[in-house]
Prior knowledge:
Blueprint: E1 4-5, E2 12-13, E3 17-19, H1 24-36, E4 41-44, E5 59-62, E6 69-73, E7 78-81, H2 87-93
Parallel strand pairs: 3-5, 4-5
Antiparallel strand pairs: 1-2, 6-7
Flavin-adenine dinucleotide binds near residues 49, 53, 54 and 106.
Amino acid sequence: MVEYWNCAKTFRCRPRLYVEPTSIDSLRTLLNEINKRKSKVRVIGCAHSPSGLSMSNEVLISMKHFNRIIEIDEKNLEIHCESGVLLSRLNEILPQHNLSLKLIRI
Ligand SMILES: Cc1cc2nc3c(=O)[nH]c(=O)nc-3n(C[C@H](O)[C@H](O)[C@H](O)COP(=O)(O)OP(=O)(O)OC[C@H]3O[C@@H](n4cnc5c(N)ncnc54)[C@H](O)[C@@H]3O)c2cc1C
């Protein structure tokens, strides 16, 4: 069993299963299997959340391979991309289209 920590090392978990699917078909098959077993699923990104939000001892799915930029609509200030795209990638690509991520002060 793999031990998984958030990046600040303040929360950890031991998922029963950790998967990095590489295609929609493999993701679909995985979810059907998990559904049959009535397991709970949590999606994980980079585990940068300072909370335990992304931790789970059941099934963890990383979307890291789903990282395609599908469409950039400069006119409407929109980007359509897959859910595993990293913010660092967006920060490289968006300025090339005169766009940027919205800054939210916390
Ligand atoms: C040094 C530092 C500075 C930060 N500064 C800021 C800041 O200025 N403003 C701010 O808003 N945040 C800030 N954060 C928080 C951080 O940016 C957010 O927590 C970020 O959303 C974490 O992204 P992650 O991919 O690591 O998600 P994780 O920590 O892996 O997951 C966070 C949540 O998102 C869900 N999730 C992750 N990926 C997906 C996906 N593909 N599909 C569906 N659900 C998913 C998880 O299940 C979990 O509930 C900071 C964090 C750090 C470490």
